Amino acid sequence: GENVEQHPSTLSVQEGDSAVIKCTYSDSASNYFPWYKQELGKGPQLIIDIRSNVGEKKDQRIAVTLNKTAKHFSLHITETQPEDSAVYFCAASQAAGNKLTFGGGTRVLVKP
Amino acid sequence: NAGVTQTPKFQVLKTGQSMTLQCAQDMNHNSMYWYRQDPGMGLRLIYYSASEGTTDKGEVPNGYNVSRLNKREFSLRLESAAPSQTSVYFCASSLDQGRSTQYFGPGTRLTVL
């Protein structure tokens, strides 16, 4: 089955700096890669996703890049703000079945 | 729209007790899922229901059973709780089992003593 590894497990950045989280996956058939943000005491919420026919996608201060050859994808947050502090999860799935496999999560702390 | 709701929010059980976690969605989604979240391990799929009337095992189904009561509701049952089932449980739903967004509920924090 699919295996998703996520690094780093914790990330501390100064407000205004950029944050980068990286994930690798094992199943070359995976072609859907969502990113979720989980705030304390809440369920995960989708913030951005990318499909295998696209190499990069941006939404305001967040962007995701995908390298299918190397089987890795990354989340980039620019101009970080205190409200970006949360746990972020990457995930991967195949088109058929849509069973998401999650990475272990990255706890991001943005220091004012 | 309330989205995905879960009850209860917190629960403490003794080893061997049983309980059912309830989940409901009001988004007319076809697919529903149960995950558990443990520190450092992300979310792991327990069971899922691709559509009303069907259920399938996920990555960690042992010790659990599910019921897709109708299109809105998907329950998770622990017949004989064990300390290893101490976790935070999340229910999610999606429009279909294709590559559509999964929406998560607020979670149930379960402690088994």
What does this structure look like?
The complex is a heterodimer of chains A (112) and B (113). Chain A has 112 residues and is mainly β. Chain A has strands at residues 4-7, 10-14, 19-25, 32-38, 45-51, 56-59, 62-67, 72-77, 86-92, 101-102, 106-111. Helix content of chain A is 0%, strand content 54%. Chain B is globular and about 35 Å long. Chain B has no helices and 11 strands. Chain B has strands spanning 4-7, 10-13, 19-25, 31-37, 43-49, 56-57, 65-68, 74-78, 87-94, 103-104, 108-112. The interface between A and B is medium-sized, with 28 and 26 residues.
**Helical element count of chain A?**
0
| Mean pLDDT across every amino acid position of chain B | 93
Instruction: Find the count of extended strands of chain B (DSSP E, 2+ residues).
Output: 11
Order of helices and strands of chain B: EEEEEEEEEEE
* Mean residue pLDDT of chain A: 92
Q: What Rg of chain A do the Cα atoms give?
A: 13 Å
Q: Quick one: which chains have the greatest interface?
A: A-B, 28 and 26 residues
Uncertain ranges of chain A = none
- What proportion of the residues of chain B is helical, as a percent range? under 10%
The percent range for helix content of chain A is: under 10%
Give the class of chain A from helix and strand content and strand pairing: mainly beta
What's the number of extended β-strand segments of chain A? 11
Give a short synopsis of this structure.
Chain A contains no helices and eleven strands. Chain A is mainly beta and 112 residues long.
